[in-house]
Design brief:
Number of domains of chain A: 1
CATH architecture of chain B: 3-Layer(aba) Sandwich
CATH superfamily of chain B: P-loop containing nucleotide triphosphate hydrolases
Largest interface: A-B, 38 and 40 residues
Structural class of chain A: mainly alpha
Number of strands of chain B: 12
Radius of gyration of chain A: 21 Å
CATH class of chain A: Mainly Alpha
Structural class of chain B: alpha/beta
Strand order of the largest sheet of chain B: 6-7-8-3-9-10
Strand content of chain B: 25-35%
CATH architecture of chain A: Orthogonal Bundle
Oligomer: heterodimer
Number of strands of chain A: 0
Helix content of chain A: over 70%
Order of helices and strands of chain B: EEEHEEHEHHHEHEHEEHHEE
Shape of chain B: globular
CATH superfamily of chain A: ABC transporter involved in vitamin B12 uptake, BtuC
CATH topology of chain A: ABC transporter involved in vitamin B12 uptake, BtuC
Distance between the termini of chain B: 38 Å
Largest sheet of chain A: none
CATH topology of chain B: Rossmann fold
Chain lengths: 357, 259
């Protein structure tokens, strides 16, 4: 094969990966529009996009006109939730990709390593301590969330430096941490009064309810920065997929890189989980669907998983609001119902894949 | 490029695996490390490229201790082809090989990396496999891909852990003669762990026979592959004949009552 033939081959090789990413982004845009249709005021599909674009362009409306209310409902009531869904889906999927690559283990994700449970427990502790989910108290919840998500992360870092750990050890460790955190969580919850109890309980289920713009900037900034960092480090993540020994032989300082990764992930996970509660399965399902479609080069897997994760969370959240309309279910419940069987399907259908299942 | 093990010992917990091994490896030669299972061949290989740190002694690359190299710089000197490569993720050949460019990666280097990968794949005559899934390849093709990954690191030394394991005889010979060809054409030093005595004897310049954590004999294939050595180290009764100028082992029987 001549060099230009080879380059052409490579272009064809990556073309369908890029196409997949673009298609997934299109699905996100579509799902975001549909998600803005639910609730109260009837607004047409295309109108939603027009209203959003007009809003971004800075169009002003006279108070209490129909246009004003359309703009208010879409941009103030519905859009923050959509943005949170996109950011949370993208960040959790990215963390899933990074975890799986870092541990060379297809079953790793923020949930199975115990970091989500840690973050969730942090939030519950903060609520029990009296931090409210409004105003500056939000930072207290988020900080506690970050600290607690660091616990499993630090144990992973220390353990993999001191002894030679296998991927299975790390997952078992995560499972143990989840049980422990769950127990502490229950202990705290049974000692709470009515209102705090239900507020705290919601964290363990996961929901995208009650978001306003002013709260959103932290998860948006941290997640975007985190995802960008992960894409930037995708080459190193590729090398880590082969396991510690091979990664070292290719010149990667595995221990330091793992520390950096876990810190970045803790920040991302805490910034999301402290708002939404535990959202399981996204970090497993989205990356695996992507890998089946376009292979495992993280340069492409990360952006594709971001888009697919965002789309998945948008769709499940919309479903969560429609199933018992006009009431809504926490999206975490729907995720378990859809994510569980979907993951099982992935495992069974492709049980040759990677030789892991 | 000279690699030198100077009194290297290694213990796993309280079990002594290697006992003060001193052995030099010269530029452009193929050296096979042989010995029975569990004798510490792979452990020795891992001490050479710093996957393991010797409990005593040190490893010198060009007169400088490996611990003084950054992992990146060491990866530019030494490539490593692991035993029985597998991946938990669906990777294409090109994804696998281009990883070897990691020590050279910087922003905007992808074009150079692609060029280097193409050159190596073409040299090994596997460029037509570039965009195929790694898992769909035959064992022989996989081994060549892993060698390609080692080569795009542009190392002076290539370490291989049983490169001919699980291969049929044709592919064993193909892989071994490929290594031979590389050592002659680009002066690559090859240090490989092997269980295939006849393949190793046919293609190696020198052989190192390990026994109970020590070097039992090191030297030319004729010096190492003798009925006495095989009897003592492997507990196997064998004859050694001359086959086109190289020693060739004919196996008779395992010796009873010894391990």
């Amino acid at each position: 094969m001549k060099e230009d033939e080879f380059d052409d081959g490579y272009l064809r090789f990556i073309r369908h990966k890029v196409t997949f990413i673009l298609a997934a982004v299109a699905v996100v845009v579509l799902a975001a529009g549909v998600s803005c249709l639910v609730d109260g005021r009837p607004i047409g599909v295309l109108d939603v996009y027009r209203i959003i674009i007009d809003h971004i362009l800075g169009t002003e409306y006279e108070f209490a006109t129909p246009e004003y209310w359309d703009d208010f409902v879409v941009c103030q009531m519905r859009l923050p939730r959509v943005v949170l869904a996109i950011v949370a889906g993208a960040a959790l999927s990215t963390c899933g990709v990074a975890m799986q690559s870092m541990m060379s283990n297809p079953l790793a994700d923020p949930y199975t390593t115990g970091m989500s449970s840690g973050a969730c427990l942090g939030a519950v502790i903060a609520i029990a301590m009296g931090f409210a989910f409004t105003g500056p108290s939000v930072y207290g919840i988020m900080g506690m969330s970050f600290l607690m998500s660091l616990v499993p992360a630090l144990i992973i870092i220390l353990l993999s430096r001191i002894v030679r750990t296998s991927p299975a050890t790390l997952i078992l460790l995560g499972t143990i941490m989840s049980y422990l955190f769950g127990a502490v969580n229950t202990l705290i919850l049974v000692n709470q009064e009515g209102e705090t109890l239900s507020a705290a309980y919601l964290w363990t289920v996961g929901s995208l309810d009650n978001v306003i713009w002013s709260d959103l900037w932290i998860p948006v900034v941290l997640s975007t920065a985190g995802c960008a960092a992960m894409i930037f480090m995708s080459g190193k993540l590729n090398v880590m997929m082969m396991g510690d020994d091979q990664a070292r032989s290719m010149g990667l300082d595995v221990d330091n890189f793992r520390t950096v990764l876990l810190l970045v992930m803790s920040l991302m996970i805490a910034s999301i989980i402290s708002f939404t509660g535990i959202l399981g399965f996204i970090g497993l399902v989205a990356p695996h669907m992507v890998r089946m479609a376009i292979g495992s080069d993280n340069k492409f897997v990360i952006p594709a998983s971001m888009a697919l994760g965002a789309a998945l969370l948008l769709v499940t959240d919309t479903l969560a609001r429609l199933v018992i309309y006009p009431y809504e279910l926490p999206v975490g419940v729907i995720l378990m119902f859809i994510g569980g069987p979907l993951f099982l399907y992935v495992v069974v259908k492709h049980n040759g894949y990677g030789g892991m299942y | 490029m000279q690699v030198e093990a100077d009194g290297v010992s290694f213990s796993y917990k309280d079990k002594r695996v290697l006992e003060s091994i001193t052995q030099g490896f010269d530029k452009g030669e193929i050296v096979s490390i042989i010995g029975p299972n569990g004798v510490g061949k792979s452990t020795f290989l891992h001490c050479l490229n710093r996957l393991l740190t010797p409990s005593e002694g040190r490893v010198l690359v060009d007169g400088r201790g490996v611990e003084d190299y950054s992992l990146k710089d060491l990866a530019k000197e030494m490539g490593y082809v692991p035993y029985s490569p597998a991946s938990n993720f669906p990777l294409s050949v090109i994804d696998m090989v281009i990883m070897g460019r990691h020590p050279y990666s910087r922003i905007g280097s992808s074009k150079d990396d692609l060029k280097a990968v193409h050159a190596v794949l073409e040299r090994l005559d596997i460029d037509d496999l570039a965009f195929r899934p790694f898992t769909e390849l035959s064992a022989g093709q996989r081994q060549k891909v892993m060698i390609a990954r080692g080569l795009v690191q542009e190392p002076e030394v290539l370490l291989l852990d049983e490169p001919t394991a699980n291969l049929d005889i044709k592919h064993q010979m193909e892989v071994a003669s490929l290594l031979k060809e590389l050592s002659e054409s680009i002066g690559l030093s090859v240090i490989m762990v092997s269980h295939e005595l006849n393949i190793a004897a046919k293609y190696s310049d020198r052989m190192v026979l390990l026994h109970q954590g020590r070097i039992y004999r090191a030297g030319s294939p004729w010096e190492v592959i003798t009925p006495e050595n095989i009897r003592e180290v492997y507990s196997v009764d064998a004859e050694v004949i001359d086959h086109s100028g190289r020693p060739y082992v004919l196996l008779n029987n395992p010796l009873r009552g010894r391990t």
